[in-house]
Amino acid sequence: SAASDVYKRQVVKRTSACLAVTVALMLATPFAGADSLGAPVMEPREASWTFNVLLDDRPIGYHRFDLRGAGEVEQVDIEARFEVEVFFVTAYRYAHDNRETWRGDCLKGIEAITDDNGDEYRVRGAADAEGFSIERNDESDSVDTRCLKTFAYWNPEILGAERLLNAQTGEVKDVTIEALGPAPFDVGGVTVASEAYLLTMADGAIRLWYEQGSGQWLGLETRTRGDRTLRYEPAALPNPPEGMPLAEVVFP
Q1: Half-sphere exposure of 52 (CA within 13 A, CB side)
Q2: What is this structure's pTM?
Q3: 97 near 79, Cβ under 8 Å?
Q4: What are the tens digits of pLDDT across the range 12-29?
Q5: Which one, of 114, 192, 191, 201, lies nearest residue 151 by Cα?
Q6: Which backbone phi and psi does 81 adopt, to 5 degrees?
Q7: How far apart are CA 71 and CA 54, in angstroms?
Q8: Rounded Cα gap, residues 170 and 155, in angstroms
């Protein structure tokens, strides 16, 4: 019917606007000791985060982050798959694949491709002597900064940032991040002591939760257009809090 077609178009528009601001990841690597010459040896590190993504409490897909590296250089492979159905018909599909290279807390390179319900975005970027160069589809740009970060929620260092790179669109966003203080994070009937933060930008606001003490990222929540709720709940974490049930990964 005409009414259902209008509703489907509204779902696509509202969901797409929200997904454009959700991406990325990173953490610091510890020293593991010293080699025979006394030089520090960095232990190879691997860590994975997987989140089920819910729209108004309805599972629509997942967002996964896999980190590996040694020394100061680390690589993060990021994958997201969302699918929204309306009246048993797929109204919206989203696929995002992204590889980021980090040195410490600074982004050194990125290659990302996104299919946003048929609209394709390709982003490539690399740090250089002038800052950070970005190619997005047919456009080129440069950012005058020595230490650019993406929306790397898993790395608490982003909480001090004033600008972040959107890995989907290749745009650099001005952000304001406010500490909200202690706030419980509830998942699967279990409450985890956490600290909450509010990340605000022109596109809207995202609430983030980090475990008290460890600083581990636990999840996020944001309101989409049409007053719908998009929420990330953990299915896998590097160090799951004691007693927290981790759900099965939902694949649409």
Answers
A1: 20
A2: 0.79
A3: yes
A4: 344 343 343 333 222 222
A5: 201
A6: -140, 120
A7: 36
A8: 20
Cβ proximity of 107 and 148 under 8 Å: yes
Tokens of 173: 């966003």
State the residue for tokens 């798959």: 81
What's the pLDDT tens digit per position in 197-246?
Answer: 999 999 899 999 999 999 999 999 999 878 899 999 999 999 988 877 77
Measured CA to CA, the distance from residue 222 to residue 122 in angstroms comes to 25
Retrieve residue 113's tokens.
């491709």
**CA triplet 31, 209, 191: central angle to 5 degrees?**
105
DSSP structure class, residue 193: -
The residue type of 13 is K
User: Which sign, positive or negative, has the C-alpha torsion 156, 157, 160, 165?
Assistant: negative
Instruction: Please say whether the beta carbons of 21 and 151 come within 8 A.
Output: yes
Distance in angstroms (rounded) separating the CA atoms of residues 101 and 248: 28
Q: Whose structure tokens read 């993504």?
A: 53
